[in-house]
Design brief:
Elements (H helix, E strand, L loop, with lengths): L19 E4 L4 E4 L2 E2 H4 L5 H10 L5 H12 L6 H10 L5 H15 L8 H25 L14 H10 L5 H14 L6 H11 L4 H12 L7 H12 L5 H10 L17 H16 L3 H18 L5 H11 L7 H22 L25
Antiparallel strand pairs: 1-2, 2-3
Helix pairs in contact: 2-8, 2-16, 4-5, 4-6, 5-6, 5-10, 6-7, 6-16, 7-8, 8-15, 8-16, 9-10, 9-16, 10-16, 11-15, 13-14, 13-15
Amino acid sequence: MTDTAGKGLEGIVVSQTALSFIDGLKGVLVYRGYNIHELAPNAGFLESVYLLWNGKLPVQAELDDFCAELAAKRQVAPETLRGLADVGPDAVPMAALRTGVSLEGIFDPDARDNSPDSNLRKAKRLVARIPTIIAAINRIRQGLDPIPPDPSLSHCADFVRMANGEEGTAEAVAALDRTLLLYLDHGFNASTFACRVIAATMSDMHSAVTGGVGALRGELHGGANMRAMQTLREIGSKDKVGPWLEKAFAEKRRIMGFGHRVYKTEDPRATHLRAMSEVLTQQAGQEDLFQLARELEEQVVRAKGILPNVDYYCATVYHALGIPIDLYTPLFAMGRVGGWTGHVMEQHADNRLIRPRAEYTGPMDLTWTPIDER
């Protein structure tokens, strides 16, 4: 008889990875040896993707070549754009994104090849094209035509232009880039583990990432940033936090954006996002939103000792940037795809089918009864 793991595989180590490390007791997040507090103020998103995939930071020429290569791959297949138009303007953006990634997998030139070189090419196309897909979803639901990518612009600058029809400010583009860096990778979280389980069957990169998008959609994972913003809107103002929270506790409601399965101290990503939120909300004339968020944080911490996670202040950052709430989780995917693809490549490089056991809790030794005697 094998030992039984706790629900949700709590505390169980199922494999090894060289991509990222988390120390939940100390509040540490590391990408390939670099503490997130080193990377977040200094590195860019694509620079960090390069680090994740290659195990080292690029020199300038390597980074320039990497960014230029991804920029040249942003245009999605025409069939993908037609498919996105067919799902219609009322589709949930994460569902449309899942469809878009799946369609890209059908028309990818390396679709049937899981070799390391092929996987790297597919990874580059996915990181480059998911922003194009999200931007197209945003345009289509407004009754507008998708805007083709412009490879002369940076990764995030072109996304803002394709999504909104005009270029964003340098400050907004930089802020978006930093959120993607903070979302890039986080150990064996639900969506990454889903990707690795799929990859372990020797399925293809696009199938794995489609599964990752599906897992990320859930409100207990990527959907938490949307729910956090909806909570702040529901409360409305700083002075209403106390009564709202008292009622929420009485109803045993989950306060979205708080708590983490791994961190027992502050999520280090939240540290950066809180500071970003304070600056960006002030610039956007939304100081009241930041004060509301701070008041809710302080009261939840006092009452329950539960700290905010990455999604809480990211919600206020995206609100300050004018991003529609239902695009918050797709933007999470836009950052996490660098991690998902890195994990698929790592899994394929040293693969073993992931096949855990389950503890059976149903009946035993039942006797068959013919249907006319039941």
